[in-house]
Design a protein that fits this description.
By secondary structure, this protein is α+β, with helices and mostly antiparallel strands. It has two helices and two strands. It has a two-stranded antiparallel sheet. About 0% of the residues are buried.
Length: about 80
C-alpha cells in the first residue's frame, strides 16, 4: 500500500462504523498516542456550479485523499 501499512479491522468495528470494503476511514491523531478513526463521510457537492465536471471532482478527491493529514494540520493552526 505505497509507503503505508494495511490495517485489518475486527468485524465488530466494521459493523459499528458501518463501513464496507473499499470505503475510506479517516484517522485523526490525538494526544497521548491515541488514534481516533471514523468512516469518511461522502462529499456533498450541492451548491456547486454545474460547470464542474467529473474529472475535476475526481482530481480533488485524489488530492484530499493524498494530503488529508496535511490539510487537517493546516486547518488546526
Amino acid at each position: 500500500m505505497g509507503n503505508s501499512l494495511g490495517v485489518t479491522l475486527p468485524q465488530e468495528v466494521v459493523e459499528h462504523l458501518k463501513v464496507k470494503q473499499g470505503e475510506s476511514v479517516v484517522f485523526n491523531l490525538s494526544e497521548n498516542r491515541k488514534v481516533i478513526f471514523k468512516k469518511r463521510p461522502p462529499v456533498n457537492i450541492e451548491g456547486f456550479d454545474n460547470d464542474i465536471d467529473q474529472d475535476f471532482l475526481e482530481g480533488m478527491k485524489e488530492m484530499f485523499n493524498q494530503y488529508d493529514n496535511t490539510l487537517r494540520n493546516l486547518a488546526d493552526r
